[in-house]
């Protein structure tokens, strides 16, 4: 069995896919701005031309099945697959079905949801969780703490922004703990890292733009402070009690829905971005209450779906065989 990818030449897949050793076919596509503008006209033109470009890719590759990863890149490929008679499936990573997936869903035979989504049930839909990298699973607490030089007995707060950065979360963490406090492992994202680096003044605060040892970082943490995107599923699988601060401008406020799912399950505390100043006090409360943290860790593991990737892979293979 062989796997190839298709995507945009100016998105992150153009770097990550070749780095992982897979072939990547690219076509021009971009998201639709929500207000009238020249960018909207360009995006509509690209969207109209994309299915033809995807058809050419499919005719060259001749796949048995197509899996769309969600977002505007997947829509044209799933449509082209339907027109070519190739079975297709979609994945939705958030607690809200995005516009691209809502438009593409009629052309897919299966839609794999990370969360239950109102109005999306029946044989086409399956709630499987969100796939997470296997490399981020299985590290021990001792391995994680050794990796990052955490002293014996120290409490560890892990702070995660987005890939590009989460400015309010990054600012809160540095202001609260740059001079004193618990041991902090802070992944800031590339954008904010240079400005934050000069403000951290102690050995017990490890600031990183990114980490190639994310599984060990999760294993080392007593508490995580994070946005509520895809990272929440990795936090759940690792059983990390979490304070989730949803990105307030996410489409359809889907990060708030994501955070609410884990708060209802007892594994997280959701804090609106407008109230982010409350986070240090909540961290102090949790660090002082190991019994509560243990309950939250158990709840996170109970909500985790570490087999999501395997379930999707098995069903996609079955779809190809049918």
TrEMBL record:
It comes from the Bacteria. The keyword Cell inner membrane does not apply. Residues 3-112 form the Glycosyltransferase family 28 N-terminal domain. Keywords: Glycosyltransferase, Transferase. InterPro entries: Glyco_trans_28_C, GlycoTrans_28_N. One of its GO terms (biological process) is carbohydrate metabolic process. Coiled coil: none annotated. Residues 157-312 form the Glycosyl transferase family 28 C-terminal domain. GO terms for molecular function: hexosyltransferase activity. The keyword Glycosyltransferase applies. This is UDP-N-acetylglucosamine:LPS N-acetylglucosamine transferase. It comes from Gaiella occulta.
